[in-house]
# Entry
Amino acid sequence: MKIAGVIAEYNPFHNGHAHQLAQLRQQGYSHIAVAMGGNFLQRGSAAVCSKQLRAKMALLSGADLVVELPLSWACAPAQRFAAGGVALLDALGCHTIAFGSECGDLALLRLAADAAQNEEVAALTRQLMKDGSTFAAARQTAVAQLYPQAAKVFDNPNDNLCVEYLLALQNQHSPMEPLALQRVGAAHDTAQVEQNIASASHIRQLLFDGETDRAFSLLPQPSREILTEALAQGLAPADLARAEAALLAKLRSMSAADFAVLPDISEGLENRLYSAARRACSLEEFLQLCKTKRYTLARLRRITLAAFLGLKKDDLPQLPPYLRVLGFNRRGQELMTLAAKEGKLPLSHSLARLEELGGQAAATARLEGVSTDLFALMLPTSQPCGQDYQSKVLSL
# Structure
């Protein structure tokens, strides 16, 4: 058994994702496990469709097991996102963690990871942040000055995430070996199409614009079929704007102290958020009132969702407390048996059973259930509460 693990969002699962899984098969990996973000993702946005549907897309296109990366790691900055995903794949017994990389050069990525941990780089990064730069921009500038050969890594969004995966492996003393796979097709976040591969953001925009034929041409057949049915049933695409009034109501009800306890709040940002919430008459206006060179839209969207979903920084476990299975096939069943035998984390498909574990597991599971209830309001056809407790695990 040779096991590869992937951390993903699959929002939605497209041809580039299918190509990556096919590469792993070609390299001899008999089993592929995926730690996938749930209904709310790293950019502070709702997923285009439910985690169950996206897990099904993955399983029908090359994955063997899909487990959920819980909310407070899935909707988080890159460092926490990577740490949560690495912990889950390690608990599943993966031998390798595979990730898409613009440079495809593992040695260069390792050098960049070393640079990111260098104290001189860290000190210069902190100084640049005091001058108003974002963390990402400050770190990139610091690395360019002190490790010029590694600087280009930080120009690329996926390579940045690769560095965080490498750091998470070190911090958790994980035995998993990293595997950098050269990305093919269109670049991240562009509207280009190359080799019939486009970015997920471009595909989502096509779906929102009603250009389903163009979007579907960039998806594997299982994804097309699943999305076709979801669109017909009003289960896609989800849109944060459908809950805009509820979001604004929540923000307006909060004090500066309420904002201060949210994740990723620092340097008095809570006062800016409070002021903006009192003035904004739309979600877009709120974000624009808050945005500065220091505070990116992605960070502000995550904070907005944290407020709406009830995330508080002091309540967040460092690493996920369980393995929640969204779907599996025969090979995936073998991985589940292995993970249960190793016993690094409790494993179940049932949110109710995971909640019964108590402690951090219970809090994480309850938050997941609440977030799914709110996600259900963002679908074209709103759904009742309880979906996350009622959904059945997908077995192929």
